[in-house]
Structures are given as structure tokens and as C-alpha cells.
UniProtKB/TrEMBL annotation, chain A:
<comment type="similarity">
    <text>Belongs to the binding-protein-dependent transport system permease family.</text>
</comment>
<dbReference type="InterPro" id="IPR035906">
    <property type="entry name" value="MetI-like_sf"/>
</dbReference>
<feature type="domain" description="ABC transmembrane type-1">
    <location>
        <begin position="96"/>
        <end position="311"/>
    </location>
</feature>
<feature type="transmembrane region" description="Helical">
    <location>
        <begin position="230"/>
        <end position="252"/>
    </location>
</feature>
<keyword id="KW-0812">Transmembrane</keyword>
<feature type="transmembrane region" description="Helical">
    <location>
        <begin position="102"/>
        <end position="121"/>
    </location>
</feature>
<protein>
    <submittedName>
        <fullName>Sugar ABC transporter permease protein</fullName>
    </submittedName>
</protein>
<dbReference type="InterPro" id="IPR035277">
    <property type="entry name" value="MalF_N"/>
</dbReference>
<keyword id="KW-0614">Plasmid</keyword>
<dbReference type="InterPro" id="IPR000515">
    <property type="entry name" value="MetI-like"/>
</dbReference>
<feature type="transmembrane region" description="Helical">
    <location>
        <begin position="184"/>
        <end position="209"/>
    </location>
</feature>
<keyword id="KW-0472">Membrane</keyword>
<feature type="transmembrane region" description="Helical">
    <location>
        <begin position="35"/>
        <end position="60"/>
    </location>
</feature>
<dbReference type="InterPro" id="IPR052730">
    <property type="entry name" value="Sugar_ABC_transporter"/>
</dbReference>
<keyword id="KW-1133">Transmembrane helix</keyword>
<dbReference type="Pfam" id="PF00528">
    <property type="entry name" value="BPD_transp_1"/>
</dbReference>
<feature type="transmembrane region" description="Helical">
    <location>
        <begin position="128"/>
        <end position="150"/>
    </location>
</feature>
Length: 321, 441
């Protein structure tokens, strides 16, 4: 018998003697499943309290005329009127279109640039670790800092961006009004979001590229497959689940885009950059139309949840191939 | 033995007193909530006198303008006890009165002999009354404020510019009296080279996110004839909000934005406008009067270089009211001490010092005092401006009304979408919906 084991057993016996028998029996009588539930229960309670309950409460509020700034007023049920208002409001449809525009272009640009960067970094050239760190810096900054930083860069009179564009194109800097021009302002935000979050897509793509075993490329080399053929037949298909995962994460994040738009344009000029989250915030916390805002939030939730589910199914199919 | 007992008793009393004193100090502490800006600093200085007189410490909770409404309306809506006193925006009065956030002050004013007749009438209506024009008081007028203009007096006085201006427009280059004159001056300075630097005509409010463009454009709309509703039938807006005159006013504001503002002026409010002036970019600047003391002290553009004028006139003569009243928060545990502060603040000598320190008093005895107009270079412009004020809706749903105006006006003026008529027609539609939701129409 191992001496140390005997000491542990003695200590365990001593502890058992000190612990009241009923408790010991009670715990010992529990099945593994019950003990597992015992450990998971606090997390589930927390999840119910901070995720599920607010969701159910928001669903309830969406059928009422409740206003959070008038807590003493009687709360009345309004049936589906809030949903009807939300779904027939041209401003909300406009905000949804603006959001879709942002989501589409930021995903396209971030995926293409992120994958390209990952592909280049994966070549493991001299100094690639340094350049990887440099590329990751924007992602590590606070959105508040990034927003203010780019607001100055976009300044027509003193901004470096306007100066650079003017130098390249010959257009006077005073005419390069990135944040004040209706056609340029959406692109100004897309550029900033792409600058900030492309490194994130790059990281995920890099993980995908690094997961491809070298022997597959070696076999392709033996078969004399061209570099282009290797890229299309090995690299892209095998990295595709990772790329799709990055698209999913960025899509969900950009659907909720708020901080960057608020900092750069405040939704303007006019309403061309007013995304759904800003419209929702204004309805909920400025107009205090809590019932209607809840209905809008539920509509957004269903849209994101539904699209994400369809997407995850497609992702699983790709993984199974 | 007896001596020993007395000594022990004394020691025990001293210990009890010393432990009780900090509690007393905590009980006598008030928290005052306001925006973080220059007048708030003046109030900190002024409140030292209150502490010296009463022993009550005043703590301050100042929040930047950008989050002022969000922060404190959330605090009031959640019945928070953070603020004992609040200097809330004029538009909050309706909602705060109807939702029970503020203590009604009528009985207190009667008891303490504080008369609303002693204050500038427009500030009483704007900052204290709800419903408007009824003797129901929820605040004491605290900080008078109004939109007005500053201009580069040193540029206006240059002989070569004066001569060129006179030849071009046929009148002397001076502070404008009408909006047409203001536009001519702005056009004259737009993209002009002064001291080797390109300068621009005027900085005006265009901010989209909170209330900026509304606070700017209303100055012009009022003067052209815009009215919030039919004076004879409340909430009837058709033909008043979107009257032909109001449409012309909005078109003028857009023309001013298009012709005469610095590049990149699509999101300008108080800070950006003051910055444009301080950095020597513009000849004229639209801004609330609270910025004037700071600008006058500025080393580069202040002193003899700066001039002040009230909002110009057109068909009518109005200016957008700013400013706030001071209220006691009904959820405070220290209402008596808070009322004591208001009583102290209402005193004429305190109000006089308030003006001296950089606050804008609303007390008649201060602003009508013989030497007032000459007491500061901007005092006359402030007096003239306060005589012509008009305020935005102070309805409980003012935020929804404001959001609608921000969107419609910005869409037309800055984004250049649609016509002025369409913008104001749309505004009538939005505001009608808000009042229908509120059951007012």
C-alpha cells in the first residue's frame, strides 16, 4: 500500500466522521446526473434571470402601451398594434435597409481582405509575427477611440484622409466631405468598421489555414497540381467553415452596429446612416415608447435568430462535406 | 468617586459627540445635478457661500451635454436618489411635472416670499411653469440662456474690408440687424483670405444626434413666421408649422448652410461652433449666450476682437430659448435642505454674484439694474436676446417631437433630400402622430 494514499484515506475518514452523517448520506445518495445538475443549476438560474426573463418580459411589453418614463400610468394591452406600427413604419424599413447595406458591404470587404491577409501571413515570411501584431492593433482599440480618431481623419480641412484623397485625385480637400455627404457617409462608416474588424476575420481565417495538414499540399505537389489549383481545391474548401464562422460572427455584430455610427455621424446626414440599433435606441430611451420599442426589438431578434439559424445549417453542411 | 463619575460621563459624551458629528455632516450634504459646462464651474464657486452660511456641503454631479439628457432623465425615470437638486433642461418641465419627478414649489414660494414676478417673465414661462402660462411652478429660473451671435469685430473694423463691403452691398459692415444682412456678411467672408488663412462666413447649428439643428433652425423659422400651433386651437399645426412663411425660413437656413459655412459643418453644435470661432475659422458664430464669457476671455479671439449681437430679425423677431430652472427632486431624502438651497439662491445678492461669476441670472433686480448693460461687453446683447425668446415644445413627449424635427430638418438642410415644404409637411405628420399617441388630439 502506498503510504501517501493511506494518509489521504485516513484524512477522508476523519472528515467523514466530522461531517454530519445525514449530509454525507444525502450527497452520497445523489446520482452523477443529479450532481451535474447541482453544479449547472446556478448557471442556469443566472441565464434565466438575465437572458430568458428579460426576453419574455420584452415580449409581454411589446403587446402593451407601457412607457418606462411614466411608471404610474395604467398599462393597457394593445394587441398587435405595436407590431403593426413597426412593420408599416417607413422609417424602420429605411433603417433596416441601411443596416442590410452596412452588413453586406462590411462582410464582403472584411472577408476578402481578412482572408487575403491571413493567406499572406500564413506564408511565414520574415517578420510575419511582427506584421501580425501590427495588423491586430485596430481590433484592440476601443470603439470610442476609433470613432473619434477617424472623425478627425475625415475632417475636410485638417484630416489626413481628405488630404491623401485630394493628393491622389486632385479634388480639393474642402470637397471631400466624408461625413457630411449623403453618398459618402455610409462608406465612411464601412471603411472604419472594415479597418477595425478585418484583423478579427484574419485571425479566424489564419486558424483555418493553419489547420490544413501539410501532407495534403505535399500530395498535390506530387500530382503536379498548380498553385492556383491547390488554392481552389484545397485551401478554400478546407478553410471555408472558418470563413463562414467569421462571416456569422461579423454579421451578427454588424447587425447591432451602434457605437461607430453614433460617434461618426449620429445617424446623419439626414437619416442615411441611421441603422436599426439607433432607431431602436431612440424609440426606447429617448421617446420612451417602451412597448413599441420592445416590438421592434423582438422583430430584430427574430430576424437575426432566423437568419443565423439558416446560416448555421448551411455551415454544418459545409463542414460535413 | 463623584469626580470620577463626572469625568467618565464627560468622556462618554465627548465620544458620542465625536462619533455623531460625521453623521451630521453626511446628513447635511446635498447633491446638485447639472451639465458639465462653464456656468457649472461658476455655480461651484458660488455654492461655497451657501456652505459657509449653512454648513451644508454641496456635492456636484456634472455630466457632459452629449449625455446630459440620457443620464438624468434615466435617473429621474428610475426614481433615483442621486440628485437632491437638479438643473434640468427647459423642455423637461412638462414630463417632470406630470410624472412627479419634481416637487411643486408654489407653497414653498408663498411661504418664503419668493415671487415669480421678480424674475424675467420669459424665463418663468420657459423654465418654471407647467402647464405653460399657468401659475404652477416646478423650478426656480436658474440659468438664463438664449441663442445669439458673436462676430470678429477686428475683421469687421478693417478699413479695406469695410470699403470693399460698402462698395459691394451698399451699407456699412457692422453687426447685422436682419437675416438678409447676416447672409450678405457671411457671403462676403466666405473663403476669404485673412492674415494668410482661408476663413468662412458663419458657423450655424447642424448637429443631428441630439437637438442641435432644431435649436439652430428655429431661430430662423420663428423670424419668418413659423408657429408651433394655432394660437386659438392648441395642437392644430397644419398651416402653422408648414406655412408658406415657415417654408421660406427653412429654405433660408439651408441657403445659409450651403453658401457660408466651413467645409465639414454637417454635425455642429455648441462645442464645434465655439471651436470654429476660437480657431479663427469664421467671421460669425451662432451659439448660446453661456459661451460668451469664455469667448470674451479667449486670448486669441476675445477682448477687443469679439463682438456680440442678438438674433437678427426678419418678419418677426425671436430667438431660441436655452437655459434651465433649478428643481427639487421628489425622490430626494433631503428635500428640506434642497429647498433651503433654492431659498438662498433666489436672494438678490446671491443672484448678483452669480452674474459676476459667469452665470446668467434671471432676476429682474439684477438684469434691470442701472449698470447691468455695461457690466460686461455681452450684457446688452444678452438683455436684448432674452427679450425676444421663444421655446421648443415643453410637452411630456418633447423628446419624440424633437427627434422628428431633427430628422426632417437635417434631411432637408444638410442631406439635401426633398424640399422645405416636404420637410415641414412631414413634420406636421410626425407631430400629429405623437400627440395622437398622447391622447392630446
Amino acid at each position: 500500500m502506498n503510504i501517501s494514499n493511506s494518509i489521504v484515506e485516513k484524512a477522508a475518514d476523519a472528515t467523514a466522521k466530522v461531517t454530519p452523517i445525514s449530509v454525507v448520506r444525502r450527497v452520497r445518495g445523489l446520482s452523477d446526473r443529479a450532481i451535474a445538475w447541482l453544479f449547472i443549476a446556478p448557471a442556469i438560474v443566472l441565464l434565466l434571470a438575465i437572458n430568458i426573463f428579460p426576453l419574455i418580459w420584452a415580449i409581454y411589453l411589446s403587446f402593451t402601451n407601457y412607457r418606462a418614463n411614466r411608471p404610474n400610468a395604467a398599462v393597457e394591452g394593445v394587441g398587435l398594434r405595436n407590431y403593426e406600427r413597426v412593420l408599416t413604419d417607413p422609417d424602420i424599413w429605411q433603417a433596416m435597409q441601411t443596416t442590410a447595406h452596412f452588413v453586406f458591404w462590411t462582410i464582403v470587404l472584411q472577408t476578402v481582405i481578412g482572408f487575403t491577409l491571413a493567406y499572406l501571413i500564413d506564408r511565414k515570411f520574415r517578420g510575419h509575427a511582427f506584421w501580425t501584431t501590427v495588423i491586430l492593433i485596430p481590433m484592440m482599440l476601443s470603439p470610442a477611440v476609433v470613432g473619434n480618431f477617424w472623425r478627425f481623419l475625415y475632417e475636410p480641412q485638417i484630416g489626413l484622409f481628405a488630404y491623401a484623397v485630394s493628393w491622389l485625385s486632385g479634388i480639393p480637400t474642402s470637397d471631400i466631405r466624408m461625413l457630411g455627404d449623403v453618398s459618402l457617409a455610409p462608406w465612411a462608416i464601412i471603411i472604419v468598421d472594415t479597418w477595425m474588424w478585418t484583423p478579427y476575420v484574419m485571425l479566424i481565417c489564419l486558424a483555418g489555414l493553419r489547420s490544413i495538414p501539410d501532407y495534403i499540399y505535399e500530395a498535390a505537389e506530387v500530382d503536379r497540381a498548380s498553385a492556383w489549383r491547390q488554392f481552389w481545391s484545397i485551401t478554400v474548401p478546407m478553410a471555408l467553415p472558418f470563413i463562414m464562422l467569421a462571416v456569422l460572427f461579423r454579421g451578427i455584430e454588424n447587425f447591432k452596429m451602434f457605437d461607430m455610427v453614433t460617434l461618426l455621424t449620429g445617424g446623419g446626414p439626414g437619416s442615411v446612416t441611421e441603422v436599426a440599433s439607433i432607431t431602436l435606441k431612440r424609440a426606447a430611451f429617448e421617446s420612451w415608447a417602451t412597448g413599441r420599442a420592445s416590438a421592434f426589438a423582438i422583430v430584430l431578434f427574430v430576424a437575426v435568430f432566423g437568419l443565423a439559424n439558416i446560416y448555421v445549417k448551411a455551415l454544418n453542411k459545409v463542414k460535413q462535406r | 468617586m463623584q469626580k470620577k463619575s463626572k469625568a467618565l460621563l464627560g468622556l462618554a459624551s465627548a465620544l458620542m459627540l465625536s462619533s455623531a458629528l460625521p453623521n451630521l455632516a453626511i446628513a447635511d450634504e446635498l447633491t446638485l445635478c447639472w451639465a458639465a459646462w462653464d456656468p457649472a464651474n461658476a455655480l461651484v464657486e458660488l455654492s461655497k457661500d451657501f456652505t459657509a452660511k449653512t454648513g451644508t456641503t454641496v456635492k456636484f454631479e456634472f455630466v457632459p451635454w452629449t449625455s446630459y439628457a440620457d443620464r438624468f432623465l434615466n435617473e429621474l425615470n428610475s426614481h433615483g436618489k442621486l440628485c437632491d437638486l437638479i438643473i434640468g433642461d427647459s423642455q423637461w418641465i412638462g414630463g417632470s411635472a406630470e410624472n412627479g419627478h419634481y416637487v411643486k414649489l408654489n407653497d414653498f414660494f408663498d411661504k418664503e416670499g419668493i415671487k415669480m414676478d421678480d424674475f424675467v417673465p420669459a424665463t418663468v414661462v420657459g423654465y418654471s411653469e407647467w402647464p405653460k402660462n399657468t401659475p404652477n411652478y416646478w423650478a426656480l429660473p436658474a440659468m438664463g440662456d438664449v441663442v445669439g451671435w458673436t462676430y470678429r469685430k477686428d475683421w469687421f473694423e478693417r478699413p479695406e474690408l469695410k470699403k470693399e463691403f460698402k462698395e459691394k452691398y451698399g451699407w456699412d459692415l457692422a453687426a447685422p440687424k436682419t437675416y438678409d444682412q447676416l447672409k450678405q456678411i457671411a457671403e462676403f467672408f466666405q473663403k476669404r483670405e485673412i492674415d494668410g488663412k482661408t476663413v468662412y462666413g458663419a458657423s450655424i447649428y447642424t448637429e443631428r444626434g441630439s437637438e442641435g439643428i432644431t435649436m439652430g433652425v428655429t431661430n430662423v423659422l420663428y423670424d419668418w413666421g413659423f408657429q408651433y400651433d394655432n394660437p386659438k386651437k392648441p395642437y392644430e399645426m397644419e398651416g402653422f408649422v408648414n406655412s408658406p412663411d415657415a417654408v421660406k425660413g427653412l429654405e433660408f437656413y439651408k441657403s445659409l448652410f450651403d453658401c457660408c459655412t466651413p467645409p465639414g459643418s454637417s454635425n455642429v453644435y455648441m462645442v464645434e461652433s465655439a471651436d470654429a470661432f476660437k480657431s479663427g475659422q469664421v467671421a460669425m458664430q451662432m451659439n448660446f449666450a453661456f459661451t460668451w464669457p469664455g469667448l470674451y476671455k479667449d486670448e486669441k479671439v476675445g477682448g477687443d476682437r469679439i463682438g456680440f449681437f442678438p438674433n437678427p430679425a426678419e418678419k418677426a423677431h425671436f430667438a431660441q430659448l436655452g437655459g434651465q430652472g433649478i428643481s427639487v427632486v421628489s425622490y430626494s431624502d433631503k428635500k428640506d435642505a434642497a429647498l433651503e438651497y433654492i431659498k438662498w439662491f433666489a436672494q438678490p445678492d446671491v443672484q448678483a454674484k452669480w452674474w459676476e461669476l459667469g452665470g446668467f441670472s434671471c432676476l429682474n433686480s439684477v438684469v434691470n439694474a442701472p449698470g447691468f448693460a455695461g457690466s460686461q461687453p455681452y450684457a446688452q446683447a444678452f438683455l436684448d436676446s432674452m427679450a425676444i425668446v421663444k421655446d421648443f415644445w415643453a410637452e411630456p413627449s418633447y423628446a419624440s417631437l424633437l427627434q422628428a424635427m431633427q430628422k426632417r430638418v437635417h434631411n432637408y438642410v444638410v442631406a439635401g433630400n426633398g424640399t422645405a415644404q416636404e420637410a415641414l409637411d412631414g413634420l406636421v405628420k410626425d407631430w400629429t402622430q405623437v400627440f395622437e399617441d398622447d391622447g392630446k388630439i
